[in-house]
Amino acid sequence: MTSKREELAANYFNCSERERAVFEAGIKLGTIYHQFVGTPVAAANVEILERAIEDGVRVQPFVKDVKVRISREALRKKKDEFDYQTLTGNLLNVELTISVGGTTVVAAMDFKEDLRYPLMYVRSVESR
């Protein structure tokens, strides 16, 4: 079932349903990166931060599933009271499932060592 607002919004997209689904996935991954990079993170709050990111993304349009993992191996202990670590792109591992109409996109973001970059990319696109 499609709401009137969804129908109105669809009129603004001059692209296929498949392209729209990929666009929506990219928007969500970009949001995760730019909204949460810089957030203080430590072993004590890593799971809370993962759930907060997932819950924030899950309420956005077309999101069917999201899994966020922050690398525990890269977390370090505080050296002193003024020392803390912040979330960076190389700590994030995200998988996101978007569904627009009959199209489902699985997209991901994770640090690619060969690129030395937190790459956002499309894993799969399926249309029914």
CATH top-level class: Alpha Beta
Q: Report the oligomer.
A: single chain
Query: What is the number of strand segments?
Result: 6
Mean pLDDT: 95
Ends distance: 16 Å
Keywords:
about 130 residues, alpha+beta, Pantoate--beta-alanine Ligase, Chain: A,domain 2, two-stranded antiparallel ribbon, 3 helices
Report on this model:
The chain has 128 residues and is of the alpha+beta class. It has one domain: 7,8-dihydroneopterin aldolase (MptD) (Pantoate--beta-alanine Ligase, Chain: A,domain 2, 2-Layer Sandwich), CATH 3.30.1300. 31% of the residues lie in helices and 33% in strands. The protein has three helices and six strands. The strands form two sheets. The chain has a four-stranded antiparallel β-sheet with strand order 2-4-5-6. The chain has a two-stranded antiparallel ribbon with strand order 1-3. The longest helix is centred in the N-terminal third of the chain and has 20 residues, at 17-36.
